[in-house]
Amino acid sequence: MRTTKITLTEQEMPTSWYNIQPDLPEPLPTVLNPATCKPVTPGDLKAIFPMTLIEQEMSQERYIEIPDEVQDIYRMWRPTPLHRAYQLEKALGTPAKIFYKYEGVSPAGSHKSNTAIAQAYYNKKAGIKRLATETGAGQWGSALSLGCCLMGLECKVYMVRASYEQKPYRRIMMETWGATCIPSPSKETNSGRAVLAQDPDSPGSLGIAISEAVEDAAGRDDTNYSLGSVLNHVMLHQTVIGQEAIKQMEKADAYPDIIIGCVGGGSNFAGLFLPFMPDKLKGKGMRIICCEPKACPTMTKGPYTYDYGDVAGLTPLMKMYTLGHSFVPPRIHAGGLRYHGMAPIVSHLHHLGLIESMSIHQTPAYEGALKFARTEGIIPAPEPAHAIKVVIDEALACKESGEAKTILLALSGHGHFDLSAYNEFLSGNLQDYEYPQEKILKSLAALPKVT
After folding, report:
1. Are strands 97-102 and 82-84 parallel, antiparallel or unpaired?
2. What is the C-alpha separation between 19 and 3, in angstroms, rounded?
3. Residue 35 has pLDDT above 90, yes or no
4. Which of 232, 257, 286 is the last residue of a domain?
5. Using an 8 Å Cβ cutoff, are 132 and 439 in contact?
6. Predicted confidence band at 338 (pLDDT cuts at 50, 70, 90)?
7. pLDDT at 330
8. ∠ at Cα 238 (122, 171), nearest 5°?
9. Which residue in 5, 226, 264, 444 is a FRET match for 254, CA 20 to 30 A apart?
10. Domain range enclosing 432
């Protein structure tokens, strides 16, 4: 009897997060204080983050223990399953072995809960009563709403307006867990009001929503800011995914030749591939492919340079691939892939040539998602649909060459709250959009001057 679903017991769940920083062949570029262009200190960040997360952000410890209270909540859905995609392989007629690590089994429906629970826990321990955050498609807002609910904290979510209008059930999900969710840009912050003054019909962006959430947190003593991607401690918390996958691949007597995932800020895919990176650094010849939309081509068209994480310039300066902090993306349905920048860790590894990137139009992404749904049964979120398209292409390349490569996919969440996008696709109304180079150059003109 073949095994379709490779599972771990709760006793086999990772008890520590993996920190890649001590294993990097070159250290990460320094994060800078925008006022001085000098390295950021813990004191610069303590107004919006608890000290434990600041320490994790800067840590050079290879493994950081997961608190027992966080592990107890993780066990509500972790370890997550690793599936062998037999039905998809059969439909493609490929000799490739396709596996996918499925994070959609979490209560919030995506990988975001892995860091939401941890961040809510550390803020609670620090005496914080309320968290403010942004969200794009709503996965992060949903996850932090759950984390705050379980930890007894209030939660305020600034949701990118385009997604707020496209995905009303995400807002209801957040409100069910007790959070407050409003469209961004809003009239509740100086940052939001400034954007609306220039463009009353602004679709919003993650950069704008971050500005609002940071401003909210900085203005209240009982409130901290919480971020669902990009920062080092967020990548750290997601590494439970890859650590589990390593054990599961061993149980399947397999090892990936290619690891594929979508990237918006980078956390879901980093969570899968970072624990495999020590093997690659030791000479293991695997490919790691980051997939992003052509409408927001951060890694494929953006420069590697210092930039703010938000529109208003309230965050520190990070070296990353960026389209410019003033970039406002089009209203594509993969709302989680519409951020202007890429996580410093992911950017650094790409700059070193250790990982690859490619951009995908949303129509072929949904074609891949439909093929996946009609073979494997799971309706993918629009974000990992971009990675599924590349998985299918690589599997078909194996069909042509006769190679039986092993492919591992990061399936970061389900698309149950994204059915309006599937309706657009099935109705023939979904259109591809490639962000014009001239608009990218205009946005990049506002990059900060770092001396």
Report:
1. antiparallel
2. 32
3. no
4. 232
5. no
6. confident
7. 66
8. 75
9. 264
10. 77-109+239-444
